[in-house]
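User: Please check token order:
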Amino acid sequence: MSTAAIDARYALAQSIARQAGLQALEWFRKRDQLVIESKGLQDMVSAADKDTELYLRAQVLARFADDGFLGEEGGLDHADADYLWVIDPIDGTACFVNGMHAWCVSIAVVHAGKPVIGVVFDPNNDEMFHACAGQGALVNQLPMQAHSARSITDGVLGVGFSHRVPVSAFVPFLDRLLSGGGMFVRNGSGALMLAYVAAGRLIGYYEPHINSWDCLAGIVLVMEAGGQVNDFLAHNGLHDGNPIIAAGAHLYAPLLTLIGPAATQGRDERHASS
């Protein structure tokens, strides 16, 4: 892996995430003019999503024409490329179109089958969460560290849910969490909540099924902040999605136990942060 090649992409990811976020913020301020389409139950898309992704795709390919690109709205190009950009132009569209601030731009780069760059930009709060393999994780220019929690009672857990998963498969976990004295929050953006895990604001995050463009950037952030994450890319997770389980190093195993068999059913075992 070329350090120069990775660093060049890392710099570009931060630059275009910021610009894309600011452009999306302009859409957000005039969201009453947006035409909203449905892609499924509780799954929306708007012109802002499409416009932002087109900008990101153009910027990446103008600089790295041979790189692959997987966007939530536009799909996959050059799947066999050495570097694959995995992008959600606006993660949290439901929040975006309803005037809530829980949305962000999420950009990841995968090299040799591993996510090596993660950038999550929150334009509403001017926070850039970013990390590159082996270089640690930062919010703006301040180092991040995953929470040192050892118990679910030591802080707030982030959770996510989509109707791709039966409700009956998720509710028992919430019952165990609350019965054990834990508390949870769901803000509508998996990428942003994973960034909060990396920043130590949340003790962990669990969602029984999430798409790759919603979480790969966050995975890099959490791992580089000293946390642990399940092997999301196993079993074709890039294309089909998988569960996501992320937490500080001390809480990861207890969280797996709390989730139960659904945590690793048909999945590879977790891997530690680098």
